[in-house]
Amino acid sequence: MREEIVYPELSYKLVGTAFKVYNSLGFGCRELYMQRAYAKELSTEGIIFIREKEIKLIYDGQEIGKYRLDFIVDNKVIVELKVVPIVKNIHIRQVLEYLNATKFKLAILIYFTSNGVVYKRVVNPNI
To answer: What distance lies between CA 67 and its chain's CA centroid?
Structure first.
């Protein structure tokens, strides 16, 4: 049985925006600059987002740490941008932690690599 894609239209727009940024800036810019360009494109597209949102990690009623998410889009999708030469599994674990902390259903990892844009949709296994 085939699983339904979570937020297909929004996901398509978010990934497409990454390609637009990469096609303009290419590989090698700092992650911060890629984030700024991505934010500008999201605004141009009229997509609602929060940038660098701080999320508290709560254990037994107490804050034990904080996460800083690159983007929360439409209050339901986490987008994390990485400028790396290769894709690493540690980033998937990172967004799984974010998904658990926020109770969101979907995160999209977007990698700006020397070979182009690579993206990974990560669905919260606990929802």
So the answer is: 13
- Two structure tokens written together for 31: 């992650």
Measured over the CA atoms of residue 7, residue 31, residue 69 and residue 122, the dihedral's sign is positive
Identify which of 69, 68, 73 has the alpha carbon closest to the alpha carbon of residue 14.
73
- The mean-pLDDT minimum among 16-20, 25-29, 46-50 falls in 25-29
Closest CA to 119 of 28, 12, 13, 15: 15
**Assigned CATH for 8-123:** 3.40.1350
Q: What is the pTM of this model?
A: 0.92
- pLDDT tens digits, 56-86: 988 999 999 999 999 999 999 999 999 988 7
Q: Nearest-CA neighbor of 72 among 88, 54, 56?
A: 54
